[in-house]
Write a structure and sequence with these properties.
Layout lengths: L1 H8 L6 E5 L9 E5 L7 H15 L6 E5 L3 H4 L9 H13 L4 H9 L8 H5 L4 E6 L22 H10 L8 H11 L17 E7 L1 H14 L3 E4 L4 E4 H16 L6 E10 L10 H15 L9 E7 L11 E5 L2 H7 L4 H6 L3 H8 L2 E2 L10 E7 L1
Parallel strand pairs: 1-2, 3-4, 4-5, 6-8, 7-8
Antiparallel strand pairs: 8-12, 9-10, 9-12, 10-11
Length: 378
């Protein structure tokens, strides 16, 4: 995105900052800071503070913000009274408790000095933000926790998130205290719709999960598949939703001549109750594999193969993008001495798929539009 901006705007860019999850070449005149994801790091805080400095210096210039998925963790500036460790602990608690991105970012906005419109409010010369969405529904106030967008959520909403996902005792005391002060009116709220500080700020979505689906469908057609594209987002708890999703997808494909490719997208969640490793796509694939092995997926399960992947190439705290599953997955795991249900219960899908060679590794792709599911029926 930075390279495209440099090409299109040529010498009109005075300074630039690229914040990424990994080192990467950047255009001349741009700084690079590699922050942390899914948990913020000290580099994430340095990136956020540098972004605020650039915004504040744009008195006579327009701040151009090019946003992709993961920016909530990659750019982190703790609010007064909150530390980076506090934010990390709160994020980790919400992730382990299975919070969706809307709940996660509601809390993030109210313990941050950059999210929830604060970056855009610093840009006195105006702000134009272009976002690639990793959020189901493409709500610009949720993408990257809406650093350039007015925030309609409140401290009370953030308190509700705390209550729903573990209660006050599960979160750092500094965060609980800040939310209490904010709810009582003792701390300024995030900039709300109509705030004059954001009157010259615009944010538009320029890419989303639908673009990934269109690309996958076009590739499938070029390879001779008949395509079924499911527009409804795949959301919910990964291990719970996978069997129902699989049955529905196969039912829709049964009316189509073979071979068929079913394409869908979305973003599931995982409630971490075990000690294993994995991500939502690997957990989704393992639950689907159990459904195929049990024969309750509908249709001829022997002719079905499923892949679920993160479009950023990173699924949870692993080096895999996702995993493959078919009717032989569970039996091959059993032959390797693995109990699929035990691995699923332990949130240990990574070890299961790694042992049978069915992890999908793409490496970081450089962008994020959520997750993509592809089912092939021979």
């Amino acid at each position: 995105m930075a390279a495209a901006a440099r090409r299109r705007l040529a010498g009109r860019i005075r300074a630039g900052l690229v914040v990424s999850s990994h080192d990467a070449p950047v255009p001349d005149g741009f700084e690079l800071i590699a922050g942390g994801h899914p948990l913020p790091t000290a580099a994430s805080e340095a990136a956020g503070r540098r972004a605020l400095e650039i915004a504040a210096a744009s008195t006579d210039d327009i701040l151009l913000a090019l946003i992709s998925g993961g920016a909530s963790a990659l750019m982190a500036v703790p609010a007064d009274g909150v530390t980076l460790d506090d934010k990390r602990a709160a994020t980790q608690q919400l992730l382990r408790a299975g919070a969706d991105i809307h709940a996660l970012n509601t809390l993030r906005k109210h313990v941050s000095a950059i999210k929830g419109g604060w970056l855009g409010a610093r840009a006195r010369g105006g702000c134009v933000a272009l976002a690639i969405s990793d959020v189901v529904g493409d709500d610009v106030s949720v993408i990257a926790s809406g650093p350039t967008v007015p925030d309609a959520s409140t401290f009370r909403d953030a308190q509700d998130v705390v209550r729903r996902f573990g209660g006050a005792d599960a979160f750092p005391s500094a965060i609980v205290a800040r939310l209490e002060r904010g709810a009582a009116g003792g701390i300024e709220e995030t900039p709300k719709p109509g705030d004059a500080r954001l009157s010259n700020a615009t944010t538009d979505v320029i890419g989303s999960r639908r673009d990934a689906m269109i690309g996958a469908a076009a590739e499938a057609r070029s390879r001779g598949y008949h395509v079924v594209q499911i527009d409804d987002p795949v959301v919910g708890d990964a291990r719970t939703i996978a069997p129902a999703y699989l049955r529905g997808a196969i039912a829709r494909a049964n009316a189509i001549a073979r071979p068929v490719c079913v394409v869908s997208s979305g973003e599931t969640t995982v409630k971490v109750v075990g000690r294993g490793r994995g991500g939502r796509n690997q957990e989704f694939a393992l639950a689907a594999a159990l459904s195929l092995a049990d024969g309750d997926a509908g249709g001829a399960s022997r002719g079905v193969i499923l892949a679920s992947v993160g479009t950023d190439g990173v699924d949870g705290p692993t080096d895999a993008a996702g995993a493959l599953a078919d009717a032989t997955t569970i039996e091959r795991g059993r032959s390797a001495g693995l109990d699929a249900r035990a691995h699923l219960s332990d949130n240990n899908a990574y070890a299961f798929f790694g042992a049978i060679g069915d992890l999908i590794h793409t490496g970081p792709t450089g962008t994020n539009v959520g997750d993509l599911q592809v089912i092939l029926l021979a």
